[in-house]
What does this fold into?
Amino acid sequence: MADHFRLTAAASPRTAPTFESDFAELWRLYDFRPEYPSEAVSAIATLAEAQPANKIIVEVGAGTGLFTRPLARHLNGTRKIVALEPSADMRQRGISLSAGVPGGEAIDYVDGLAEALPVGAGSTCLVVAACAVHRFDRAKFYDECRRVLVPDGALAFVEYRLSGDGPAEDIYGMIENNLPGYQRGAHTNATGQYETVDLQGEMLATGAFTRIRRSFCDFEIAWSHDDFVGFVRSLTPVMKAVRLHGAETMEAHIDAIFDRYSAERSSVGVNFRCELVQAACYRRA
It folds into this structure.
């Protein structure tokens, strides 16, 4: 899903090969992506609400605020949310979309990296990343979480991906047929290579996190033709396929999927599975 962020030690933060080129193109399409389901937002908000009220929330790789805004609405301005996003275009779109949102006044969009969180030691009750962690240099990121989180502070990851048969299966098939090297179920890392990520295993191996839990919820979005095309075009692998084959060719494939599952080109229902991984930090560096 969303390919937000970042970086291996060998890559410069501003010259990593996939960073600027990917998000310079994608930010305009992020409005077509669905917000996160209320069950996931509520679960993560509860983690913050259990922590001291004077501590901040840091969302890393916030993009245009797809997760930031519903979290702010749920908390209704009671917690400051520092939304870190290195893409200036993404940040500006996030600021614009957050204006007037209940709780939006508590969001502060900041240029920042997962590997060097721009907040003080022990300042943070919750660090969260939504569809972003696969781009981090996670060893450095976990060290930063240990530094900024209060003892027993929360670390959470949330992401959604296409699920089930029907349109989801056909979208995956279209990508596999048009993007050499694509691996279903894997994410692109900071260098643009596909890899699988075991967040639970990684956090356990650090020795810094406990009460590691994983949960799921399912949801469905019904899209009109234009919204469906916009969503599929917003997927990073599809963007890469467009570079190879051209927008006209790829949109013809997307149109064919929509027509296959829609009734008189009215709407298509697309299924998603949302995954939440959460842990508590019991040691600070």
